[in-house]
C-alpha cells in the first residue's frame, strides 16, 4: 500500500521521537526538523513530504512514530487521500 507522509516543519520541535521509533522513515535535518525518507533513503533530496510504498508492519511503525510526536507535526494519508493520523 502507499502512504503519503507529511511533516509540518513549523510544528516540529525536534523532539526526535519519530526518528527513534521509525528511523527508516524519519530523519533529522540540519535545522533539527524531521524529514521524510523512503526506507532510509532521501531519494530526490530532502523533503518534508513523501509518498511511500509500505507493508502492513511498516505502516504500523510509521503510525506509531507519528503518534509519538508531541506536537502532532506528522500527518499520514492513505492512497485514497483519507487521513489516517491524526484521526479526524
Ligand atoms: S516527533 Fe514530532 S516534533 Fe519530534 S522530530 Fe518528529 S516530527 Fe518533529
Strand order of the largest sheet: 4-1-5-6
Beta-strand segment tally: 6
Count of separate structural domains: 1
Radius of gyration, whole Å: 11 Å
Give the end-to-end Cα distance, rounded to a whole number of Å.
Answer: 21 Å
List the bound ligands.
Answer: iron/sulfur cluster
Low-pLDDT stretches are none
Mean pLDDT: 97
User: DSSP strand (E) fraction?
Assistant: 25-35%
CATH class: Alpha Beta
Which fold does the CATH topology refer to? Alpha-Beta Plaits
The rough form would be described as: globular
Order of helices and strands: EHEEEHEE
Largest sheet: 4 strands, antiparallel
Helix content bin = 10-25%
Number of helices: 2
CATH architecture: 2-Layer Sandwich
Characterize the structure shown.
- This protein is an alpha+beta fold.
- It has one domain: Alpha-Beta Plaits (2-Layer Sandwich), CATH 3.30.70.20.
- Helices cover 19% and strands 28% of the residues.
- It has 2 helices and 6 strands.
- The strands form 2 sheets. Strands 4-1-5-6 form a 4-stranded antiparallel sheet.
- The longest helix is centred in the C-terminal third of the chain and has 12 residues, at 56-67.
- Bound molecules: iron/sulfur cluster (SF4).
- Iron/sulfur cluster is lined by residues 7, 12-18, 26, 34, 68-69, 71, 73-74.
